[in-house]
Specification:
Elements (H helix, E strand, L loop, with lengths): L1 H15 L25 H7 L2 E16 L5 E14 L4 E10 L3 H4 L17 E12 L6 E9 H8 L13 H4 L11 E11 L2 E10 L17 E13 L2 E16 L20 E18 L2 E15 L6 E12 L9 E11 L1 H7 L8 E11 L4 E11 L8 E11 L1
Antiparallel strand pairs: 1-2, 1-16, 2-3, 3-4, 4-5, 5-6, 6-7, 7-8, 8-9, 9-10, 10-11, 11-12, 12-13, 13-14, 14-15, 15-16
Length: about 400
């Protein structure tokens, strides 16, 4: 991992035309924004050439303390490389996944570590996002976009408090209803338009491929199973001087699917059942966001609510409907303005088609869970999170899963 980072650093220093031996900033180590400061001159050198480089190392330790599919603890992590070219005209996200996880050991239909789903459940490196953004109007309110789109990155761009699973909640069901699993892959090739509002995404219309291309270029299978369409619009509101919004999202896929097909978001036990193919699939999603309290003297101190409700096609998706609600706060403890805390509840209703196909040999029911986390800013570049999840698995043969986790994120 360290060797990989050094190779990247040396390569970029050569491209930027700077001296890798240049001294790092004299800024206090605990006060700087990044562990490596200016990365021996590499970071500002790249910025002069229109490239913004960010490197994040996130390490996870999770323990299935009781219940679930089996008792297990595991350590793993991710090294994320983000590159922004020409003030956002192109954005690339590469990921290096290492170690192990407990996703399959806790509750496969409610992934307890959404970030470790990328690029896949194995030690690997891949480019999961390479998106090009072209302003269509002089005021940059309308933007054309195309390329490989990372779904967690896109969702985090709309709702930054979700944190891609490395800053906020870790369980995918706690911050993203999995009713979208069939029609929105982890990573996909697509193109469309976005409408901006005060540097926030207000609306979008995308046409994209139905295959998960997190580990491939995506061109070999491009549109060989039809095309997907996603449309969304977000209404911004204000209640009592506090901002909020209401988002409506609809997706439709023209390909052929079954409710047992893999999506990458959830994991279905292989019991040898063959499901009939159905043509077309869809999902609907509503998201409520509202600040409940804000410190008038410090905008960084606040409490907000986020609630999501989703529906999907029962004949092609494991989920018929899903919902979640969460409260998240920042800077609630004196002199801990960068700390965040959250508590959330989720419920995923399995589709009747999915239950009927697997009952028997499995005994399936709807699943639900709660998650609590506290993210402590040890320094500006080092955040340590304690996380507790209690999940009622879909398989009634398994007891309630209690998963304790630690997450350490370092902005390199």
């Amino acid at each position: 991992m360290c060797r990989t980072l050094l190779i990247f650093a040396f390569g970029f220093s050569v491209l930027a035309g700077i001296n890798p031996a240049q001294k790092a900033s004299a800024e206090c180590c605990c006060c700087r924004e990044y562990l490596t400061g200016d990365m021996f001159g590499i970071r500002p050198g790249l910025a002069e050439h229109g490239v913004v480089a960010d490197f994040d190392l996130t390490q996870f330790y999770q323990d299935v303390a009781s219940g679930g599919a089996r008792r297990k603890d595991a350590y793993g992590g991710k090294l994320d490389y983000f590159f922004t070219f020409a003030k956002g005209l192109a954005v690339m996200h590469a990921e290096n996944r290492f170690g192990e996880d407990v996703i399959l050991d806790a509750a496969g239909l409610a992934p307890v570590n959404a970030n470790m789903l990328y690029p896949e459940l194995a030690q690997t490196t891949a480019i999961t996002g390479l998106q090009f953004n072209l302003p269509l109007t002089t005021d940059q309110q309308w933007i054309g976009t195309f390329g490989k789109i990372n779904t967690l990155d896109l969702f985090n761009a709309i709702y930054p408090q979700t944190g891609r699973g490395v800053d906020g909640f870790m369980n995918g069901s706690a911050f993203l209803p999995l009713t979208i699993a069939r029609t929105v892959p982890l990573s996909f090739l697509g193109a469309g338009m976005m409408k901006m509002h005060d540097k926030q995404i207000q609306g979008a219309l995308l046409v994209y491929d139905s295959h998960n291309s997190a580990m491939t270029s995506g061109f070999d299978q491009l549109f060989d199973n039809g095309a997907n369409i996603a449309g969304m619009w977000r209404f911004f509101t204000e209640i009592g001087g506090l901002p909020g919004s209401h988002l409506f999202l609809g997706t439709w896929a023209s390909g052929e699917f079954t409710s047992l097909d893999e999506t990458g978001w959830e994991f279905i036990p292989d019991v040898g059942v063959i499901a009939p193919q159905e043509t077309g699939s869809w999902s609907l999603l509503y998201i409520l966001e509202q600040k409940l309290w804000g410190d008038p003297c410090n905008q960084g101190r606040n409490i907000g609510i986020l609630s999501q409700w989703g529906l999907s096609d029962q004949e092609t998706s494991p989920y018929a409907w899903a919902c979640n609600v969460s409260l998240q706060g920042q800077g609630l403890i004196a002199r801990r303005e960068q700390d965040t805390v959250g508590i959330g509840y989720f419920y995923s209703g399995l589709s009747n088609d999915f239950k009927n196909l697997l009952n028997p040999p499995l005994r399936l029911s709807d699943l639900q869970g709660v998650e609590l986390y506290y993210n402590a800013a040890i320094t500006r570049w080092f955040h340590l999170t304690a996380d507790l999840q209690v999940v009622e698995p879909a398989d009634s043969a398994h007891d309630t899963a209690v998963v304790f986790g630690l997450r350490a994120k370092i902005d390199l």
